[in-house]
Design a protein that fits this description.
This protein has two domains: 3-129, Ribosomal protein L10, N-terminal RNA-binding domain (Alpha-Beta Plaits, 2-Layer Sandwich); 130-172. 55% of the residues lie in helices and 16% in strands. The chain contains six helices and five strands; from the N terminus they run H-E-H-E-H-E-H-E-E-H-H. It has helices at 3-19, 33-45, 55-64, 90-98, 123-128, 132-171; strands spanning 22-27, 49-53, 80-85, 106-112, 115-118. The protein has a five-stranded antiparallel β-sheet, with helices on both faces.
């Protein structure tokens, strides 16, 4: 491969790294053509972009990108495919679901919510990662709950006072 062709691939990888908020480094070697095709279809359905890349080119793309992903360099060994996504836990769920029937893909590392996760044992932690919007919704719900309780208590208290006044009025 010519140097100019490599540079084009590096630039394409860098653009994808910069444009997606989250990406996973996986190993899909050992999957036959039918299984790989099935994995690609699942990725497409869940808006996950699956790209196979050479480790040296991927490393250069990571170095040139705006992401602080230096800890991922150690995972760039053997066969590497990259799963790009906008939803942080989507590839983790996809991998877990796909592995119910197959032995691969294996999780090598992930860059999710500006944090790095290294190793296969991080898969369950990545499934539990909530997106920024989910966290904001949780905070809003927590802040809203005491206010709703207070309002309902005030309303029930008002009804009780109103009931007592009505009862006194009827006695007279």
């Amino acid at each position: 491969m010519k140097s100019s062709e490599k540079q084009v691939l590096i630039n394409n990888l860098q653009e994808q790294i910069d444009s997606y908020n989250h990406f996973y480094l996986t190993d899909i070697s050992g999957l036959n053509a039918a299984d790989t095709s099935e994995l690609r279809r699942l990725c497409f359905k869940q808006d996950v972009k699956l790209v196979v890349a050479k480790n040296t080119l991927l490393r250069k793309a990571l170095e040139n990108s705006g992401k602080n992903a230096g800890e991922l360099y150690d995972a760039l060994k053997g066969n590497t495919s990259v799963m790009f996504t906008e939803v942080g836990n989507a590839p983790a769920k996809l991998i877990k679901e796909f592995r119910k029937k197959h032995k691969r893909p294996l999780l090598k590392a992930a860059f999710v919510e500006e944090s790095t996760y290294l190793g296969e044992e991080q898969l369950d932690a990545l499934i539990a990662v909530k997106s920024k919007n989910e966290l904001i919704a949780d905070v809003v719900a927590l802040l809203k709950s005491p206010m709703q309780t207070l309002l309902s208590q005030l309303q029930s208290g008002g009804n009780t006072i109103h009931g007592v006044l009505e009862a006194l009025k009827e006695k007279e």
